């Protein structure tokens, strides 16, 4: 048995000298030191030895195992070191090379306008409210003084999902939901930004989906002059301190009286140019005093409370402010177009 062990040691060490890869080394380890290896097989026969021979053979077996394990460990360390050296050589980084600039994104012009408008009204004590884009006919029309047979519904060509469910045509339903949630509490000072949908042919100035920001104020003693002062402050923050406004009578079912709001052309200062069609004025939004019926349907006594509301298209303001001539640029995700706003 002693001879077998010594022969096994010489055989294993000779084979170790021929190993060239980690895979071969692993196979050799299993071959000689595994449960089915020759060393284990020899040790199983130690039971037939005499009491005097067992410690001698056991010591030799341990020496053989130790020699093989030591050889395997040393070779494994060498292989791993060489592999690391090869990888480091292949992955060497030249720290003197100039860096590669990472492309930077820019805030989308619509988001820039929304954030700017929100900041303006937050500074005036307003809060921002949101609501669902899939809305009920009740909130989108009926609570805004637009019953089912109202002719003004034809002005908003609506995407209906069912007879009572639709894609909202305005963010005004958020106003109704807020008034109902407040249950008669005042003051209410909110703006409602969000997407709205109407069946329209897409062209340079129209889109079937666009963004609105509407505002609502409800309290005791709210007057038309409060509305005008609020809008004047807003347009001067957006278009510059010299901007003036004018209110032209108009009609909206949910406000009475109602008005369209024009601002002095920020390009020509009101003298007349191509942008304002030589009138000196540009229309930007609609507004009015909240209709008593709208207040009443949402739980506010119109004899005690009054309010005003306004609504604007974010795309229109973005196009005017940044000189964009086609609304479709805002939705086509052309990086060449969007990169222009990285510095603005």
Automatic annotation (TrEMBL):
Its EC number is 6.1.1.20. It catalyses: tRNA(Phe) + L-phenylalanine + ATP = L-phenylalanyl-tRNA(Phe) + AMP + diphosphate + H(+). CDD domains: PheRS_alpha_core. Coiled coil: none annotated. It holds the Pfam family Phe_tRNA-synt_N. Residues 111-340 form the Aminoacyl-transfer RNA synthetases class-II family profile domain. It is an enzyme of class 6 (ligase). Its cofactor is Mg(2+). Tetramer of two alpha and two beta subunits. This is Phenylalanine--tRNA ligase alpha subunit.
């Amino acid at each position: 048995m002693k001879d077998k062990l010594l022969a096994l040691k010489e055989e294993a060490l000779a084979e170790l000298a021929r190993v060239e890869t980690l895979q071969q080394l692993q196979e050799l380890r299993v071959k000689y030191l595994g449960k089915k290896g020759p060393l284990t097989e020899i040790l199983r026969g130690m039971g037939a030895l005499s009491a005097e021979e067992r410690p001698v053979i056991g010591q030799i077996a341990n020496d053989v195992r130790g020699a093989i394990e030591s050889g395997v460990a040393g070779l494994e360390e060498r292989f791993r070191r060489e592999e690391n050296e090869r990888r480091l050589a292949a992955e060497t980084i030249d720290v003197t090379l100039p860096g590669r600039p990472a492309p930077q994104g820019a805030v989308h012009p619509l988001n820039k306008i929304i954030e700017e408008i929100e900041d303006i009204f937050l500074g005036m004590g307003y809060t921002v409210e949101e609501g669902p884009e899939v809305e009920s006919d009740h909130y989108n029309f009926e609570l805004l003084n637009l019953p089912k047979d109202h002719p003004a519904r034809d002005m908003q060509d609506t995407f209906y999902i069912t007879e009572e469910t639709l894609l909202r045509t305005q963010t005004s339903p958020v106003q109704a939901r807020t008034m109902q949630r407040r249950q008669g509490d005042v003051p209410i000072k909110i703006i409602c930004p969000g997407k709205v949908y109407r069946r329209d042919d897409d062209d340079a100035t129209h889109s079937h989906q666009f963004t609105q920001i509407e505002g609502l104020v409800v309290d005791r003693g709210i007057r038309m002059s409060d509305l005008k002062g609020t809008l004047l402050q807003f347009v001067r923050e957006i278009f510059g301190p010299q901007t003036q406004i004018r209110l032209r009578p108009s009609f909206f079912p949910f406000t009475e009286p109602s008005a369209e709001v024009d601002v002095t052309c920020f390009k020509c200062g009101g003298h007349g140019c191509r942008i304002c069609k030589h009138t000196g004025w540009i229309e930007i939004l609609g507004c009015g005093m909240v209709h008593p019926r709208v207040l009443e349907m949402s739980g506010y006594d119109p004899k005690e409370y009054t309010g005003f509301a306004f609504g604007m298209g974010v795309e229109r303001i973005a196009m005017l402010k940044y000189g964009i001539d086609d609304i479709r640029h805002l939705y086509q995700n052309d990086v060449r177009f969007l990169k222009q706003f990285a510095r603005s």
